[in-house]
Write a structure and sequence with these properties.
Pfam families: DHQ_synthase, DHQS_C
CATH architecture of the largest domain: Up-down Bundle
Largest sheet: 7 strands, mixed
Distance between the termini: 45 Å
CATH class of the largest domain: Mainly Alpha
Enzyme class: lyase
Strand order of the largest sheet: 1-2-9-6-5-3-4
Subcellular location: Cytoplasm
Number of helices: 14
Strand content: 15-25%
Helix content: 40-55%
Order of helices and strands: EEHEHEHEHEHEEEHHHHHHHHEEH
Keywords: Amino-acid biosynthesis, Aromatic amino acid biosynthesis, Cobalt, Cytoplasm, Lyase, Metal-binding, NAD, Nucleotide-binding, Zinc
GO molecular function, one term: 3-dehydroquinate synthase activity
Bound molecules: nicotinamide-adenine-dinucleotide, the ligand O=C(O)C(=O)C[C@@H](O)[C@H](O)[C@H](O)COP(=O)(O)O, zinc ion
Length: about 350
């Protein structure tokens, strides 16, 4: 068992990382405040882990909410259904919500927790690689709007994050790859050594070698925890975690939520960001090729959908949350391992790379 802390003063919390999930009960229970627990999960994940979570929660009064699977259900309608379920179950301010699943479940459960009776306790138990390295940490909670990704949400931190690497064993290959896109993102934006470690350990990652995955998950959580501790509400540096997302969110919204997985859209978006940086002479052709080669190793897309025009991207990117004074802002790599926020990308530059 490894653990690290997200240092946020009076709302600091631990991230536990374990290989087999055996300590679920001993690490989870101290973070549950009352007797009532509602586990929010989905129709794919709950059947796999219900007996394990039920065993860990034998001392509590537990109910389960199973949402439909998929990004297309990260909506206000599902949010409303969960609220109705909580009220019908008689949940009160002393309830603890547990998000058991990937980023979709985590984001929606977090938003419910932030707003049910103006805020209740919640714990993240992420079961996908993407949610273990990214979405369960940092307190961004949200649902999608047809006009834009994560448009309705709140910053609301969990009480704890419990990662069992064992859960990756049942994860479909395509979902594992989508998680690798966010892993590669950390290498590009913050840690050249991590990027090189990924390049040097492709086979071990593909085989989900325990030690290699433990290192990767821990390092990604460490980078995210450090950035979030410095800038919880994205007033500055946290925006760097959005590398690839300005383009990626446009792809997800334009293609219809769930058709491109979030990680796949981010992969294509990171290549587009690298190409913009290359155009400006910041990173060289060989760095762009290294990013593409690494993404290719996990069968991730390295360009956007052929059907999308530059205008299609711009239409969505104009609604991006980083827009300031009507200007679309992008995260671009200065070099491998360092990224910056830029506000002066021209339409002509976009036309060139898209
Ligand atoms: N809040 C944040 O900071 C943040 C960060 C990154 C991504 N996100 C959001 O996260 C979402 C993507 O998350 P995701 O990639 O985890 O997708 P997801 O939640 O849709 O999970 C992917 C698929 O894997 C299934 N699954 C989950 N765990 C499993 C397991 N152990 N075994 C078998 N199947 C399993 C799910 O049912 C689903 O079908 C997007 O909505 C994205 O916007 C949020
Ligand atoms: O935690 C963050 O900050 C991130 O940007 C992480 C991203 O990987 C994640 O997809 C996030 O949900 C995007 O945030 P948004 O504010 O662009 O919706
Ligand atoms: Zn993301």
């Amino acid at each position: 068992m490894k653990s690290l802390e997200v240092n946020l003063g009076d709302h600091s919390y631990p991230i536990y990382i374990e290989k087999d999930g055996n300590s679920l009960s001993s690490f989870l229970c101290p973070h549950i405040k009352g007797q009532r627990v509602v586990v929010i999960s989905n129709t794919t994940v709950l059947p796999i882990f219900k007996s394990q979570i039920a065993l860990a929660l034998t001392d509590f009064d537990v109910s389960y909410y199973e949402m439909a699977d998929g990004e297309a259900n990260k909506t206000l309608e599902t949010y409303h259904d969960i609220m109705t379920f909580l009220l019908e179950q008689g949940a009160a301010r002393d309830v603890t919500l547990i998000a058991l699943g990937g980023g979709v479940v985590g984001d929606i459960c977090g938003f419910v927790a932030a707003t049910f009776m103006r805020g209740v306790n919640f714990i993240q138990v992420p079961t996908t690689l993407l949610s273990q390295v990214d979405s369960s940490v940092g307190g961004k909670t949200a649902v999608n709007h047809p006009l834009g990704k994560n448009m309705i949400g709140a910053f609301y931190q969990p009480q704890a994050v419990f990662i069992s690497m064992n859960s990756l064993k049942t994860l479909p290959k395509r979902e594992f790859a989508a998680g690798m896109a966010e892993v590669i993102k950390y290498g590009i934006l913050a840690d050249r050594d991590l990027f090189e470690y990924l390049e040097n350990n492709i086979a071990a990652i593909q085989q989900m070698d325990d030690d290699v995955m433990a290192y990767i998950i821990h390092r990604c959580c460490e980078i995210k925890a450090e950035i979030v501790a410095e800038d919880e509400k994205e007033q500055g540096r946290r925006a760097l975690l959005n590398l690839g997302h300005t383009f990626g969110h446009a792809i997800e919204a334009e293609q219809g939520y769930g058709n491109w997985l979030h990680g796949e859209a981010v992969a294509a978006g990171m290549v587009q960001a690298c190409q913009l940086a290359r155009l400006r002479g910041w990173i060289n052709e060989s760095d762009v090729s290294r990013v593409i080669t690494l993404l290719n190793a996990f069968d991730l897309p390295t360009s956007g959908p052929d059907s999308m025009s530059c205008d299609d991207y711009i239409k969505h990117m104009k609604k991006d949350k980083k827009v300031k004074a009507s200007t679309i802002r992008f995260i671009l790599p200065k070099q491998l391992g360092q990224a910056i926020l830029v506000s002066d990308v021209t339409e002509s530059e976009l036309q060139t790379i898209l």
